[in-house]
Amino acid sequence: MNFLTLFLAELKYSCVGNLMASTAVAVAVLYLNVEINIMASCLARSFPDATFRCDELFELLGIGHRRGHISARLSSKEQQRVALGRALMSRPKVLIPDEPTGNLDRDNTHHLLSLLREYVDERGLVLLATHEPEVAALADETYGFKDGVITKAERMIG
């Protein structure tokens, strides 16, 4: 590996948190317990306060009572919170959720979007992909992607 490859990998680990709707990794981690699942994002590198950070996320996400449970046995709402915890574990500057509300009902969608808004207000940037106009309407800025072209969308008013 060259220096640029190593630099970009470190940048990704330290600055970007991914929250994907369904990926091979997401399927694999369903069979880990919740605590290992959340800590998975920092296992490959030094993370001195990992246990403290994990405890902090359990409280923030309201899933501490599920700590030792296998992720596959959680509700979709709880699985989404575990995925968010994994994405937030390394305190990224940018969070990239891809269709994070696709499997959630209205109440759980509202809760997840509230957590993402808190994240933006406190520390970072969220680049969220969605097909849901109600979700997009909550964004500070929206962009559309059509025929390979990205354009800034007009602000949707309620």
Main attributes of the structure:
158 residues; alpha/beta; Rossmann fold; three-stranded parallel sheet; two-stranded antiparallel ribbon; 5 strands; 45% helix; 13% strand; globular
Question: What is the correct CATH architecture?
Answer: 3-Layer(aba) Sandwich
The number of helical segments is: 7
The CATH first-level class comes to Alpha Beta
Based on CA atoms alone, the radius of gyration comes out at 16 Å
Number of domains: 1
What is the mean pLDDT? Answer: 77
Query: Structural class from helices and strands?
Result: alpha/beta
- H/E element string? HEHHHHEHEHEE
Task: State the total count of DSSP E strands.
Answer: 5
Please identify which CATH superfamily we are dealing with: P-loop containing nucleotide triphosphate hydrolases
Spatial order of the strands in the main sheet?
Answer: 1-2-3
- Strand % is 5-15%
Oligomeric form = single chain
CATH topology: Rossmann fold
Describe the structure.
- With 158 residues, this protein is of the alpha/beta class.
- It has one domain: 3-Layer(aba) Sandwich (Rossmann fold).
- Helix content is 45%, strand content 13%.
- It has seven helices and five strands; from the N terminus they run αβααααβαβαββ.
- The strands form two sheets. Strands 1-2-3 form a three-stranded parallel sheet. A two-stranded antiparallel ribbon has the order 4-5.
- Strand 2, helix 6 and strand 3 form a beta-alpha-beta unit.
- Helix 4 runs antiparallel to helix 5.
- The chain is globular.
- The termini are far apart.
- The mean pLDDT is 77.
List the helices and strands and how they pair.
Elements: H1 3-15, E1 16-20, H2 24-29, H3 34-39, H4 50-61, H5 76-88, E2 94-98, H6 106-122, E3 125-126, H7 133-136, E4 143-146, E5 149-152
Parallel strand pairs: 1-2, 2-3
Antiparallel strand pairs: 4-5
Helix pairs in contact: 4-5
